[in-house]
Description:
By secondary structure, this protein is mostly helical. It has helices at 16-36, 48-53, 64-76, 80-93, 97-105, 109-117, 122-136, 141-146, 148-156, 163-179, 181-187, 192-199, 205-219, 224-233, 237-244, 253-269, 273-278, 281-298, 304-318, 322-326, 335-352, 357-369, 372-380, 384-388, 395-409, 413-419, 424-431, 437-453, 456-463, 466-471, 480-492. The chain is built from 31 helices and no strands. The model is unreliable at 1-14 and 30-39 (pLDDT under 50).
Amino acid sequence: MWSRQRGGLKPLRCGVEELRCRRREREAALRKARREQQLVSKRLLRDEALEEAEEGCVAMIFGEAEIQQFLRLAQRGTEEKEREGALVSLRRGLQRPETQQTFIRLEGSIRTLVGLLTSNQALLQLEAARCLHELSHSEQSAVVEACLPATSYLLTYLSGHSSDFIELCLYTLGNLIVESEAVRRQLLPQGIVPALAACIQSPHLTVLEALGYALSQLLQAKEAPEKIIPSVLGSTLPQHMLQLLQPGPKLNLGVAVEFAWCLHYIICSQVNNALLITQGALSTLGLLLLDLAGAVQRTEDAGLELLACPVLRCLSNLLTEAAAEAVGGQLQLRDERVVAALFILLQFLLQKQPSLLPEGLWLLNNLTANSPSFCTSLLSLDLTEPLLHLLSVSNVVSVLVLTVLCNVAEKGPAYCQRLWPGPLLSSLLDTLAFSDTEVVGQSLELLQLLFLYQPGAAQAFLQQSGLQALQRHEEVAQLQDRVHALQQRALHG
Length: 493
């Protein structure tokens, strides 16, 4: 540290520990913001064969009289085909918000639909469930609330034998759960968590994907950390989720995406991440990261970034847990493999989905923050220059790139010697000219670390007009005396 000085040089106002503390505070704030950003959405499940058969049929807006007629025919039609046809017509009409509003205002309409849902005729049951599904997809909360009497039956049917019917029930429940606290209050004591835990053992991929969706909607509820996630963690769901995320020939992209998001919401709640870590979450996600890196090199599948995002987030957040350090060996991966895989994914995201680059850089930041070995891997694989190439993507990406480089530099003189000068000098001169104050501030923090551990850096920086770059920013003009002091130390010591 600069506490021991010679020749009357002014002390640095901001030492390594303070720099590290400031970065950690910013990172904590970022983590909190990321935890609060949830991806609430609804899904609409429609049978492709039915869609093709009904192609050209325009969804009509029905009034009360027409709706009542359809419901009467569905209940009392003389033939099953006539009854089924009435529900099909009603379902088409319920694709329109106007018909939905009319339907829920009509006395006894939901009760009649629930009666058809619980009938002993499979085709009528299925069409009634499809009608409820159309209602569940509504953006109007009153429509969703009206479906409340049907939810307990939908939950009961999750233990049925028809995979198509179970899939439909799961998507409908998922749509209703995310919209209505009343629905969640009714379903939780009725055992929705055990019911979902039973579904996860289904051999049908469509059921598993629908289950992942419904569970992810449940986990995003505002009361989830207190009332839902403890029950989920106490069930067999986490172990089964991790099994479904295991790399291998049985890994299904759609299923993996849904359960990776489920895992993300559980981790963000911070209810009991130590339990997930002891169950092997770090190891599973680390192996999945390697598998993803291999997959993006083998295929042009545009869906891989959908899995990369939650996997990167899960790993990033788990690595901030104290329990992660205690079981770090469970990763069972060489540092170089992890870092190399991460850079492959960064290049993939740069081409396919640049908006997801911060996710990968956030993980790289958490890997290098407290690990000299990961920093060594980054340097030994000559990944500094590819990292610097990302500076032009956006200000958010630039700050994260510079933060990772600060993590490396703060490990000491040997690391700074590997960083400097190389392409870093010209890159820092460029970032100091950015208009974004956070990018400039992070650049200055990196410069301070380099000047501290690599005295020759100050002289080289000044020779490359670095001082002029600093002068362009009023808020950092006071750093000039520090730069001169470091230059003198480099020349005389």
